Amino acid sequence: MAHRKSNSDAALIAGWFFPSIELIGGVATGAIIFVGGSLVLNEQLSVFTLLTFILYIDEFFFPIRMLAQRYNQFQAVMAAGTKIFTLLDTPIDIKDDPDAVELPTIQGHVKFTNVYFRYNQEEENFILKNINLEVPAGQTVAFVGHTGAGKSSIVKLISRFYDLTDGSLTIDGYEVNKVTQNSLRRQMGIVLQETHLFSGDVMENIRYGRLNATDEEVIEAAKAVGAHDFIMELPDGYATVVGERGVKLSGGQRQRVAIARTLALQPDLLLMDEPFNSLDATTRERLQDTILALRRELNMTTVIVTHALDEAAVLGSKILCLGDPPNCTPVIIENPAAEKPDYRTRPAYLDMRNELRQRMGLDA
Ligand SMILES: Nc1ncnc2c1ncn2[C@@H]1O[C@H](COP(=O)(O)OP(=O)(O)OP(=O)(O)O)[C@@H](O)[C@H]1O
Ligand SMILES: [Mg+2]
Description:
Layout: H1 2-41, H2 47-89, E1 110-117, E2 128-135, E3 140-144, H3 151-158, E4 166-171, E5 174-175, H4 181-185, E6 188-191, E7 200-201, H5 202-207, H6 215-224, H7 228-233, E8 241-242, H8 251-264, E9 269-273, H9 281-298, E10 301-305, H10 309-315, E11 318-321, E12 331-334, H11 347-359
Parallel strand pairs: 3-10, 3-11, 6-9, 9-10
Antiparallel strand pairs: 1-2, 1-4, 4-5, 7-8, 11-12
Helix pairs in contact: 1-2, 6-8, 10-11
The structure holds adenosine-5'-triphosphate and magnesium ion.
């Protein structure tokens, strides 16, 4: 908003300034012709002197015009420069501990012990309170809870975009804030709630998950999430440029490209924050099965945030129901029969879904 105002102010000033300079130049030339002309007529001045003078007057105003233009450019560049330096100077909140160690290749055993978290130390209430949760390597945990309950916040704690306020969060016994961020994030695949694609083509966007993935591996990942068919229908297939300067993909298409990117990584720890929310029911179920199959094949620990209780019941061998602030009492439900391929048709699944609905204050 401020940017728009200063831009329109600048345009207004430029709009006055340049014509004024031109006008003064014009008036000056006119005055010289008028005065000089009458002197010539009275034979007090030769025509050549007058012409030379007029040429000089033009020479005189040319640098002033140039100076004004350059000054305008200079101001624009300075404004852009200030913006760039403000961004570069933004303090980094999360720093590697001076004694941080490299996190060795992980199995994916995640453990929360008495975790408390709030974004702002000045805030009175915690967003997450007393979270105790253990996810053995290779298991899937689902987080459910109302909007604002703190589901995305937990995902950001595991990926260490924020630090805990109190308690302990370990992966394979290593405190997440005692290992280098690079070695931590390299081993996890993250699908965030807001999916971002980069400028570039579809192939690059998926390969971004693992830079040394071959074209075949990228296509395989796209097929796994059912994105291959729509990608082939794009104007240039996998070479179609997406993002700001390219083809605009729909929310669900973007989401599938983002999931394919994460699967290409074949991570040991998969974090997904509402990854399926813009997908239709059929695609959603197919993707759930894909995640289950991959989870078994790669033995990756999976953390999935979802508003869909049936999804939590299908995927999560543990389900963490987050309470609403200020009490936030979390409840962990064991779901031993989860992750079976034919699970959706079993009575246990319906029981679980109903239990979740009751806990969330919905009629069963
Ligand atoms: N960067 C932030 N700074 C301060 N407060 C934040 C920040 N991000 C989220 N919050 C607050 O933390 C609380 C939990 O947010 P969070 O995003 O974890 O909720 P959520 O359970 O993921 O909700 P949703 O289902 O809508 O995605 C909210 O009250 C939110 O306003
Ligand atoms: Mg969220």
